[in-house]
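The protein record filed here.
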Amino acid sequence: MREQELYLLVTRYLSGQTSDAENAWLMDWMTADKRHQQDFDEIKRVWQEHQRTTDEQVGQALSVLRARIAADEERPAPVKSKRVQLYWFAAAAGIMGMVLTTWYLFTPKPTNQLLSLKVITRPGEKKTIVLEDSTRVVLGPESELSYPAAFAKDNRTVSVKGQAYFEVSQAPHQPFVVKTSLLSVQVLGTHFNVQADPKAPANTVALLEGAVKVKLKGTKTYLLKPGQEISVDRQTNQIALNPLDSTSVLGWQQNVLIFKNEEFGSAAARIEKMYGVKIVFNNGAAAATHLYAQFKNEPLDAVMETICTSGVLTYRQQGDTIYVNMKKGTK
């Protein structure tokens, strides 16, 4: 895309005039290269400066331009060719057109809410997003982050489905809030991980640095300290507060899988997300098999071979689907 086209796309996007397809293209473009994010921020800065120009100022600029044109029309013109005269009027019309276009593009349009953006990852895919306040978000596979193009003056609110790791920039007078379907997390500046997979039995928040306030639906609020993890059961709303294992919590960023006496049926979701496959259990006994293993950036076939050869399971892969069964002769 040429520089002019990109500039117009970004300004239309900031004015809330782009389509869903254009928004998706722009999000992919920004996350593909850190320099793209810097280009976007620079265009946004210029756009915000133009927003401060009032309709009255634009009107005054147009009046001055019209007055100059009228004065030139009334003043006895020196002898000049028709070509020069035509050139002047064409240039004046062009300038007026540019002023009007700038006024249209950079005049804030009435809106009832902030422009919302959304980043969605596919199975096996991770994305890093840098928000406008310089907060860094690593979005896990098959996850979703929703956030405004520009934060409100008194808060910075985003929502998450799935897995996300946050490094929040300091802004004491502008709290950062992460919302999930079961809870909200309020911070001022910290590093923490959120697991809010709609298919998972619980939502968890793990704090690595700083302090966060976790508010459940209702009135209960918990203040976490570094090294703590809170879990909220989706069915019972039961709360569990435990010390965190940083390798288990952040392992997904380096393709690390850790299973500690965990049922295969529960562990399967993490394998599916990391490798972009679907695991089908042919019977309940296979799904109930307990796993105790750790894998670091291993290929899928190595993971499945290790799981199955060390126990009573067998598997076969057909396309993106893995079928798991008990070995013959086992119950």
